[in-house]
């Protein structure tokens, strides 16, 4: 079959690679000239394992272009453009609308972008010449291609029986659980999944404040809770809060849609509030003075990616700079606009604080003597990830919700 994919970001490029690996012909459309140039030379514009190899090995099945019109002959057109937050928190659908306004032929369109409940039904009414289905994407950055090849589930939201059956046949080959449902259910499964994971994180962050006060260890609590299969250990790590391009914006979009429906989603609102204040909670553990130097270790919003969208490190740096503190960052692959060292040692040299913000292996596994070059050896573990937390030698260590050391 022949597929067209509009938008070759994390989702679009992973989808393109997955379809090419499955033997299909794919036309990928990307509007950003620099990204397209990199892709055409065989290089993904971001760090994702396995994609460069697929682009190379399956080059004869892949066409890369900037023109949407080149997708006229495809069997399915997949939309993977961004759906960022507007200033009022609602979901900005303008990238999707811009693509639709350029289409001149009838298409079967599969939306893989995350959109608010009701969007696909509305598009079916607004653009009757096309048939829309939504297949929300659940991939995690850093393992995007693996997730596309073997997702935990595929959710197909479609009211057109023929298209739904066709999509079930295509995705059925992945051999994973398949849910065929209405578009509004599919859209909400995606938003609810992200909101639930984000709420798990906020639940632990909220509790971490009590753990600090009461002298408990939130990591041990998470381990104990996580052994219950009804709870599960994932997303129970207290820390600096969630960031990234999905959780904050999808939580905001969900709250916005709810308020339009005159519903107050109190749990989700509270989870958002906890997240917004968690960075202040981390900051309250530092006693910074002007001209101090703070090393921020790990910049990406999570390990395994170079994605800096809504990364907590940026907000943290922003707060520090506002207090006249010198900030220097280190990350194995991500970059930012603040000063950045090329090694951990360089970042730590002369620093008054080291803050672990992204739990890359390299940073988590630092030996206590790696901090010898610091002016003051004060460590803030904003991910509760440093292994030596319980035996840090003569460094001062403070985690989140695990303040009391034996
Ligand atoms: P992204 O910003 O990395 O990629 C979007 C791409 O679309 C960009 O490269 C942009 O240049 C391109 N684009 C925009 N308009 C275009 C047009 N008219 N023609 C051609 N290209 C165009 O975004 P992403 O992270 O891949 O996310 C895409 C969607 O998938 C969002 O709705 C997001 O919420 C959802 N999603 C993302 C993830 C994730 O982990 N990143 C996971 C699941 C779902």
From TrEMBL:
Pathway in which the depicted protein is active: Nucleotide-sugar biosynthesis; UDP-alpha-D-glucuronate biosynthesis; UDP-alpha-D-glucuronate from UDP-alpha-D-glucose: step 1/1
Pfam families: UDPG_MGDP_dh, UDPG_MGDP_dh_C, UDPG_MGDP_dh_N
InterPro entries per record: 6-PGluconate_DH-like_C_sf, NAD(P)-bd_dom_sf, UDP-Glc/GDP-Man, UDP-Glc/GDP-Man_DH_C, UDP-Glc/GDP-Man_DH_C_sf, UDP-Glc/GDP-Man_DH_dimer, UDP-Glc/GDP-Man_DH_N, UDPglc_DH_bac
Enzyme class, first EC level, given as a word: oxidoreductase
EC number of the protein: 1.1.1.22
Top-rank taxon: Bacteria
Keywords, sorted A to Z: NAD, Oxidoreductase
Gene3D superfamilies xrefs: Cytochrome c1, transmembrane anchor, C-terminal (1.20.5.100), NAD(P)-binding Rossmann-like Domain (3.40.50.720)
Recorded catalytic activity of this chain's protein: UDP-alpha-D-glucose + 2 NAD(+) + H2O = UDP-alpha-D-glucuronate + 2 NADH + 3 H(+)
Entry coiled-coil feature ranges: none
Ranges of residues in domain UDP-glucose/GDP-mannose dehydrogenase C-terminal: 295-388
Family: Belongs to the UDP-glucose/GDP-mannose dehydrogenase family.
PANTHER family: UDP-GLUCOSE 6-DEHYDROGENASE TUAD
Protein name per the record: UDP-glucose 6-dehydrogenase
Annotated organism of origin: Exiguobacterium profundum
């Amino acid at each position: 079959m022949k597929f067209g994919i509009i938008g070759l970001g994390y989702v679009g490029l992973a989808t393109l690679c997955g379809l090419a690996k499955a033997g299909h012909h794919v036309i990928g459309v990307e509007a950003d000239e620099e990204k397209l140039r990199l892709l055409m030379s065989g290089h993904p514009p971001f760090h994702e394992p396995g994609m460069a190899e697929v682009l190379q090995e399956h080059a004869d099945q892949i066409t890369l272009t900037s023109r949407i019109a080149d997708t006229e002959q495809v069997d399915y057109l997949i939309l993977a453009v961004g759906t960022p937050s507007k200033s009022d928190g609602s979901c900005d659908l303008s990238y999707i609308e811009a693509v639709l306004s350029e289409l001149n032929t009838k298409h079967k369109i599969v939306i893989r972008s995350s959109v608010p409940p009701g969007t696909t039904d509305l598009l079916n009414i607004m653009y009757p010449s096309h048939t829309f289905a939504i297949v929300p994407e659940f991939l995690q950055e850093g393992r995007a291609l693996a997730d596309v090849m073997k997702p935990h589930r595929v959710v197909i939201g479609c009211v057109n029986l023929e298209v739904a059956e066709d999509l079930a046949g295509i995705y059925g080959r992945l051999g994973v659980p398949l849910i065929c449902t209405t578009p509004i259910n599919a859209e909400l499964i995606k938003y609810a999944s992200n909101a639930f994971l984000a709420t798990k994180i906020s639940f632990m962050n909220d509790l971490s404040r009590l753990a600090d006060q009461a002298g408990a260890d939130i990591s041990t609590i998470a381990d104990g809770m996580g052994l219950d299969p009804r709870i599960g250990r994932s997303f129970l790590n207290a820390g600096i809060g969630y960031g990234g391009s999905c959780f904050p914006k999808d939580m905001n979009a969900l709250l916005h849609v709810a308020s339009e429906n005159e519903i107050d989603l109190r749990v989700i609102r509270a989870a958002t509030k906890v997240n917004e204040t968690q960075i202040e909670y981390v900051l309250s553990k530092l006693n910074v003075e002007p001209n101090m130097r703070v090393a921020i270790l790990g910049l990406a919003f999570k390990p395994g990616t170079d994605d800096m969208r809504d990364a907590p490190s940026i907000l943290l740096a922003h707060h520090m700079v506002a207090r006249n503190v010198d900030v220097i960052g280190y990350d194995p692959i991500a970059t930012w606009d603040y000063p950045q060292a090329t090694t951990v040692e360089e970042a730590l040299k002369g620093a008054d604080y080291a803050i672990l913000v992204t739990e890359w292996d390299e940073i988590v596994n630092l030996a206590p003597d790696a901090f010898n070059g610091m002016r003051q050896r004060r460590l803030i573990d904003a991910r509760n990830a440093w292994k030596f937390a319980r035996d840090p030698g003569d460094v001062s260590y403070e985690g989140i919700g695990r303040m009391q050391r034996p």
